[in-house]
Amino acid sequence: METSVSTTAPNGVAIAYRDTSPIVMRDDVPVVLVHGMGGDGRTWAGFARRLVRAGRRVITVDLRGHGSSARAASYRFEEFAADIAGVCGHLGADEIDLVGHSLGGRTGSLVAQRHPGLVRRLVLEEVPLPLREGDPVPEVPAHRPTPAELWHAATSMIRSPRAVFAFDRSMTEDVVAEFRTPDPSWWQRLPAMDTPTLLLRGLRHGSMVDPHLLESAVALLPRSEVREVHCGHSIHRDRSDDFAAEVLPFLMS
């Protein structure tokens, strides 16, 4: 499945995206796929093919400073979210299903909060949840990757070397600092999110989902469910079949 890259600049920064439609459309609401920090939209190639075969239009986005998108002067979470909403507006998509990994999931949660009615279903894969006031910064224990994880990481780099070289590393310090800064407003907006939400958490060392924060978030989200997979931080890459088995039925329901 080859799809050309297009760009739009809804907030003054050129954002690259790929828009693929199936031969037979079974649901006219597109699925927007948003990658994590350091990657780009091509990390979703395998899952995108599954979605297209299932009759779904798929839009994959390169976040600002990643992949084929332009670098920017700042990289705030709210700006990432505004870019995603801007791409949707550019494409005339007034309703979407959104799947986000890590930084892409945090971005997706903000899209759902800031643009009521835009996100019909939301999938948050391995999202480092915002801290509340007084929460300690969770520690992410190091672990020795399994042979399968090493293989998938290596082959992903071979298939998409541009992601490594195009990534604007200047954002790393600011993005990590924002992850570690409490965001009480994010928590205050959760009860108003009526979006069906699927949260995926890896059970191996390397997962970046704090279980206590996850429990608190689910208690506030009126229509949420959690699925756990024996994997580290990248479920869609390292356990693609398990990821699809959880996410496809949710998106097609």
List keywords for this structure.
253 residues, alpha/beta, eight-stranded mixed beta sheet, 10 helices, 8 strands
The number of distinct β-strands equals 8
Please bin the fraction of helical residues: 25-40%
Shape: globular
Low-pLDDT stretches: 149-158
How would you describe this protein?
Helices cover 38% and strands 19% of the residues. The chain is built from ten helices and eight strands. Strands 1-2-4-3-5-6-7-8 form an eight-stranded mixed beta sheet. α2 crosses α3 (103-114).
Brief characterization of the structure:
Helix content is 38%, strand content 19%. It has 253 residues and is α/β, with parallel strands linked by helices.
List the helices and strands and how they pair.
Layout: E1 6-8, E2 15-20, E3 27-34, H1 45-53, E4 56-61, H2 77-90, E5 96-101, H3 103-114, E6 119-125, H4 147-159, H5 161-166, H6 172-179, H7 184-189, E7 197-202, H8 211-220, E8 224-229, H9 235-238, H10 240-252
Parallel strand pairs: 3-4, 3-5, 5-6, 6-7, 7-8
Antiparallel strand pairs: 1-2, 2-4
Helix pairs in contact: 2-3
